[in-house]
Amino acid sequence: MKKWLQKTLIVTVALLTFGAISPSHEFWTNLQEKDEANPGLHPSRADDFQIAVAERDFEPETIDQPISIEETLVSSAKELSYMKFGSKIGPVIQGEFDEVIFPKIEEAIHMTLANSDDVHKRRLAISERPAGNYSEKIFHVFDMDARKDLIRFHVRTEKRPQEGYYFNFHYHVAHDGFMAHHTIGDIYWSKNTPPKWLS
Question: Residue 31: its pLDDT value, please?
Fold first, then answer.
């Protein structure tokens, strides 16, 4: 059927019924000539491939691919760190934090959990909110049953004479009663006083 005739018929039906009745799609496919192909009904091989890729990309995780407690803790650790930095500090130090500091935080989490004998029996969690103002706490990993911290990650603002302000990232572990100060690294801010955390 000619395209102009088909369009005219659609407009006529719409005007006569005030849009209350819409013709079914089967009606229009039956009106088309057999030799006229409808690309919407017969996808090409490229379309088949795109659909298959899209379906694969959005498949839910299966039981064969469980997320480990370590992966959960590490992803939450990064989110809480960015929350601590806020919108004023975060954009300035994010690159160096991602490249230098966070891999060491991740390593410390893995090492601490590996040194815990019964880590698979414990219900571990991570603190929900970092401390603001000028407090050091970024996050703590703790045992929910014993209600005791296993590892504490902190960042301290240090003013060094003639140099300016640095952010000193460090952690404390339960094995030594949180006494030792395990340095992760420093990020330079500037000679100006940095904003408060969470700002």
Answer: 57
